[in-house]
Amino acid sequence: MRLLLSIGFAAGGLLAVGTAVQLAPTAAEAQPAGPPISFTDQQARQGRGVYGGCESCHGGDLLGLDGGPALVGEGFARRFNDSPAELFTFIKDNMPADLPGSLTPASTAAVMAYILQSNGFTAGADPLSSDPAVLATQSYPPHTQVP
Ligand code: HEC
């Protein structure tokens, strides 16, 4: 029990730090509906590889090209007001636009982790779920906006 309590306090401390460095007013207004998602650094690294199939349209730096919109910055941040399940399902069903439906659930979670990291979310201990039903019960944690 004591262990559980100290984990609770540690998580509270981390949340407080996350709130203090938060810069995006839109994210501050969003009221998380469930426990925050997490993703691992390893997932984000794998996702960087998956992103090789997205670069031609979204750009090497995720800032967008003629073929596709930016996947970072203020315009994209509206995505974080929705359930994490929405972004996952959108990518899984529609991307890459020239071969929709070709990503496995695991690759979708990995590339989403890479996009989240690129948007200022910090990797954690737990992997991002590749099950939209689980993601639908979770929310985005506060994060630092990347331009
Ligand atoms: C052939 C070009 C092309 C490729 C390749 C491609 N996309 Fe896209 N993507 C688009 C276009 C065009 C849109 C905007 C249309 C739309 O939202 O349906 C888009 C939209 C998106 C969005 C939503 C953007 C927003 O502002 O909400 C995400 C997320 C996304 N793509 C992720 C990916 C990922 C991840 C990959 C690689 C696995 C990928 N795309 C590969 C063309 C592409």
Q: What is the name of the CATH class? A: Mainly Alpha
The named CATH superfamily: Cytochrome c-like domain
Q: What's the rounded overall pLDDT mean?
A: 85
Segments where pLDDT lies below 50 for 5+ residues? Answer: 1-31
Report the CATH topology name: Cytochrome Bc1 Complex, Chain D, domain 2
Largest sheet at a glance? none
Order of secondary-structure elements: HHHHHHH
Name the hetero compounds present.
Answer: heme C
Helix content: 40-55%
Q: How far is the N terminus from the C terminus? A: 43 Å
Question: What's the total count of β strands?
Answer: 0
The total count of helices amounts to 7
> How much strand?
under 5%
Give the gist of this structure.
This protein is mainly alpha-helical. The protein has seven helices and no strands.
Description:
With 147 residues, the protein is an all-alpha fold. It has a single domain, classed as Cytochrome Bc1 Complex, Chain D, domain 2, CATH 1.10.760. The chain is built from 7 helices and no strands. The protein is globular. The termini are far apart. Bound molecules: heme C. The site of heme C has 21 residues, from helix 4 and helix 5.
